[in-house]
């Protein structure tokens, strides 16, 4: 039933939408906006009106940008709009509308996600309620998100670690993995693409996709509901894989599980009947509903079970300004070899830039209005808002040693890119060995600027590796907003460290919101053997788009501490 929509309601919805755009919306406000959008046609129309306005906004700002550039007469601090950062100007016209549209579509996408979930399973309405219960709207479950890895959700940003999913609400995981913890001690790793929801403190509903469940002693009776099957734990580890046509595979890794077939699609999911089919350790079975109604044994495959999320950078901490924006890195939390540890910044292995050949653009330094001497020291401090940015690149990764010599007489400035040297060699261990922080704006690729990382010296077995997605992206709640900074622009690109130090430049104050995103680099991906010592790396943007890699801090990780 639609909610009444009068002038007071319109004002409320407008305020909620504006709070969403400003990034200041609370969970309670988010729930109210979600409810309005999904139940009221007038609220939806108001929402689309906002969307149209913000889709037209880039052209208005672009015209104002042109006027501003014509009126600028004095060097020094110029309060440029977000349309004028040291990137190619076309990014604003081509990307901002899409980014704003994604942000605006959060609540309506949730509504669409619920609709898609209902249509795919055919039984969501029954699973979402038990006869006699009152409907539950935006009530937090007792479960919580314990971990996320490269997770992207349809129509919404990833939740914070520790947040509780809304009870009986559909979540559509487009890619990546999430781990859910439950009050009874059970846990489930869900792999995207998947559609799932928490229907109770001991009940996970999986409409499509794969999950791996661990129910330790005390969590017996934990249940996973699929569109056709109910799986009840009997103290076990098991995996469930539901295809688009509801074909369901169950594999028991340890212990046992009881399988119930739901009587009909019209029956309440909680009311499974009949004697269960007991599946024992290292047994697997498939329910293929398109071709047959009977369960068929399939080969057991332990690899289908996901014991945990992949090694990655989980979060980081930094000092903050009076406004709460990040400045200096203080620690980074990583998972390496399935072990989570928080590493203080003084334990990191610093690096310095030893080679720089820029991309063909204008901005190459980020920091304060006044530059230090030498300028390249911006890349060697612990600040998340200073660095040597917009590095050069190549569409194809290196297959031989980079050329790091300059012969101006032949107009030969060596290999485009950036070389870094660690203060002491980094040892290749499990998981990430190096962390790279990048400064990123919302109009840039949300997942980070893709880049090649290569050995400084190629030897047998070594090769380049291309990183396309950061561990913490612009969509990650753990990526912190950065304090004020300037981008220093050049009239021509510096093609050597000497030119970077000597070319005149202009500081431009950056008013657009910017965050520090981060990725871990595993030296094994470059072919280095376990235990190998690496003294430096060569980085190149992969030139896949008009945005360039903007590293602000690169550091080696110490060896994994022993228990």
Rounded mean pLDDT score: 81
Rg over C-alpha atoms, rounded to the nearest angstrom? 26 Å
Structure class: alpha+beta
- Cα(first) to Cα(last) distance is 58 Å
Estimated helix fraction:
10-25%
Assign an overall shape. globular
Number of helices: 7
Low-confidence stretches: 52-135, 265-273
Number of DSSP-assigned strands: 28
Largest sheet: 12 strands, mixed
What share of residues are in beta strands?
25-35%
Oligomer: single chain
Keywords:
single chain, 563 residues, alpha+beta, twelve-stranded mixed sheet, five-stranded mixed sheet, 28 strands, 18% helix, 34% strand
Fold topology:
Blueprint: H1 7-21, H2 27-39, H3 41-71, E1 79-80, H4 90-104, H5 106-121, H6 124-127, E2 144-153, E3 171-181, E4 187-200, E5 203-215, E6 223-225, E7 229-233, E8 236-242, E9 248-254, E10 256-261, E11 277-280, E12 283-287, E13 295-297, E14 312-320, E15 326-336, E16 339-344, E17 351-357, E18 363-367, E19 387-388, E20 417-427, E21 434-441, E22 451-455, E23 465-467, E24 486-490, H7 497-502, E25 505-510, E26 514-521, E27 533-541, E28 551-556
Parallel strand pairs: 1-25, 5-6
Antiparallel strand pairs: 2-3, 3-4, 4-5, 5-8, 6-7, 7-10, 8-9, 9-12, 10-11, 12-13, 14-15, 15-16, 17-20, 18-19, 18-24, 20-27, 21-26, 21-28, 22-23, 22-27, 24-25
Describe this structure in words.
The structure is a single chain. The chain has helices at 7-21, 27-39, 41-71, 90-104, 106-121, 124-127, 497-502, and strands at 79-80, 144-153, 171-181, 187-200, 203-215, 223-225, 229-233, 236-242, 248-254, 256-261, 277-280, 283-287, 295-297, 312-320, 326-336, 339-344, 351-357, 363-367, 387-388, 417-427, 434-441, 451-455, 465-467, 486-490, 505-510, 514-521, 533-541, 551-556. It is of the alpha+beta class and 563 residues long. Strands 2, 3, 4, 5, 6, 7, 8, 9, 10, 11, 12 and 13 form a 12-stranded mixed β-sheet that branches. A hairpin with a 2-residue loop joins strand 15 (326-336) and strand 16 (339-344). Helix 1 (7-21) crosses helix 2.
